[in-house]
């Protein structure tokens, strides 16, 4: 039985453990406001249009703000991208990442901590011609919490994008959810518990388009004290460019 | 000016709205979504929010309603994460899950009162305003909810302390 003070401390710690993602919240407010605005386009008094403008003002200048404002006035909404052509360009293969349930590090001695082999492929090595570039890194937020971050850079607009972050099971690994910074587009995220891994999945909403730029995806989690080896983690991104080309990138963290 | 005022409201409250949603539903990602939806509602009813005695309480109240709807929907879909937490084995689970699992076992009103009183330090009067119920109802739901929660968490206090120290 906890005392009142203990209960207060426990609940405050639990509230503090959650890190709200300002960009995600802001993005969703804008998305919803603009959807509603589109539905009420014919209404004589379009209050919601103001919300998009206000939110755009919150985040200041930049392409997203202009896009949001354009949506708000309904005058110069971006045209939908042309339908993808049927020609599929295969990007030069990047080294495939093992996504099986049992990434087995080689063990030379029972006591040795499994480590990523030093000859592991670089995070992402598409040919210079690929418009899609990706990188994985780990952002440690405390002794027992971190985010595995995938940064996607695209030089072309994308009409489809799927990003998967796979975290190999380690001691006390618990998902704290996924989030992303993809201004101007709606992205759905989910976390699945598989036998050997936590799998974070991010999908661009159908009908949305991502402009050329840099975008980040976060898999947040907590783990046991003493650190966590990210050596068996991996990520993969598949995308469709505005011209219909299928693009891929994948790699590891570290 | 309305836009500037909403801007200020967003910056002041998005954080607490999301944390409140998180304690109510136990899902970090969905909590951000609920906070955003609450913000959209705040914008939609901005005149009413501005006229309210406590504009922050208005937003918190919306989060509470959205949280209840979210849980109902997820329960129907059998996907409610807290349902999963309830069924999870007791051992080898980090203390952080114990807190969320214990909260999930409280009825909505008790959970709401305990979270607002204990995690957000609100007075009984503020909680009553936020939830649109009487102060008497707040007092009784808080006391029952806190007792229930304290009993559930009593056994895992040691681990909770360890987790706090580590965080």
TrEMBL record, chain A:
Residues 70-139 are annotated as: Disordered. It comes from the Bacteria. The keyword Transmembrane helix applies. Keywords: Membrane, Transmembrane, Transmembrane helix. Residues 86-118 have a biased composition (Low complexity). The keyword Membrane applies. The chain crosses the membrane at residues 48-69. This is Uncharacterized protein. It comes from Actinoplanes cyaneus.
TrEMBL record, chain B:
Keywords: DNA-binding, Sigma factor, Transcription, Transcription regulation. The keyword Repressor does not apply. It holds the Pfam family Sigma70_r2. SUPFAM superfamilies: Sigma2 domain of RNA polymerase sigma factors, Sigma3 and sigma4 domains of RNA polymerase sigma factors. One of its GO terms (molecular function) is sigma factor activity. The keyword Transcription regulation applies. InterPro entries: RNA_pol_sigma-70-like, RNA_pol_sigma-70_dom, RNA_pol_sigma-E_actinobac, RNA_pol_sigma70_r2, RNA_pol_sigma70_r4_t2, RNA_pol_sigma_r2, RNA_pol_sigma_r3/r4-like, WH-like_DNA-bd_sf. Residues 98-149 form the RNA polymerase sigma factor 70 region 4 type domain. Belongs to the sigma-70 factor family. ECF subfamily. PANTHER family: ECF RNA POLYMERASE SIGMA FACTOR SIGM, RNA POLYMERASE ECF-TYPE SIGMA FACTO. NCBIfam families: SigE-fam_strep, sigma70-ECF. This is RNA polymerase sigma factor. It comes from Actinoplanes cyaneus.
């Amino acid at each position: 039985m906890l005392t009142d003070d203990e209960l207060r401390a426990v609940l405050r710690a639990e509230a503090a453990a959650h890190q709200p993602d300002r960009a995600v919240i802001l993005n969703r407010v804008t998305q919803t406001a603009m959807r509603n605005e589109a539905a009420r386009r014919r209404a004589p008094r379009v209050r919601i249009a103001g919300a998009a403008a206000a939110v755009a003002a919150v985040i200041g200048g930049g392409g997203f703000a202009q896009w949001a404002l354009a949506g708000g006035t309904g005058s110069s909404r971006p045209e939908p991208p042309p339908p993808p052509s049927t020609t599929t360009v295969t990007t030069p293969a990047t080294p495939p990442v093992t996504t099986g349930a049992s990434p087995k590090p080689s063990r030379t001695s029972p006591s040795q901590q499994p480590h990523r082999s030093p000859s592991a492929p670089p995070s992402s090595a598409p040919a210079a011609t690929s418009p899609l570039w990706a990188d994985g890194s780990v952002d440690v937020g405390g002794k027992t919490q971190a985010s595995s971050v995938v940064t996607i850079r695209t030089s072309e607009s994308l009409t489809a994008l799927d990003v998967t972050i796979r975290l190999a099971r380690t001691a006390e690994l618990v998902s704290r959810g996924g989030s992303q910074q993809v201004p101007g587009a709606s992205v759905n995220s989910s976390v699945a518990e598989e036998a050997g891994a936590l799998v974070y999945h991010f999908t661009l909403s159908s009908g949305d388009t991502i402009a050329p730029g840099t975008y980040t995806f976060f898999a947040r989690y907590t783990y046991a004290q003493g650190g966590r080896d990210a050596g068996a983690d991996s990520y993969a991104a598949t995308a469709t460019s505005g011209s219909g080309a299928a693009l891929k990138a994948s790699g590891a963290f570290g | 000016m309305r836009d500037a005022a909403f801007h200020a409201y967003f910056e002041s409250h998005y954080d607490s709205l999301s944390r409140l949603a998180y304690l109510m539903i136990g899902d970090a990602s969905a909590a951000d979504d609920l906070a955003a939806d609450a913000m959209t509602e705040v914008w939609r009813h901005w005149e009413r929010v501005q006229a309210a005695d406590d504009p922050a309480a208005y937003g918190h109240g919306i989060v509470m309603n959205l949280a209840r709807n979210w849980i109902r929907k997820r329960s129907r879909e059998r996907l409610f994460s807290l349902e999963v937490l309830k069924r999870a084995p007791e051992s080898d689970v980090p203390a952080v899950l114990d807190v969320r699992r214990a909260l999930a076992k409280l009825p909505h009103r008790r959970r709401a009162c305990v979270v607002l009183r204990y995690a957000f330090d609100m007075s009984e009067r503020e909680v009553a305003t936020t939830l649109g119920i009487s102060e008497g109802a707040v007092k009784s739901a808080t006391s029952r909810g806190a007792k229930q929660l304290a009993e559930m968490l009593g056994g895992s206090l040691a681990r909770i302390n360890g987790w706090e120290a580590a965080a």
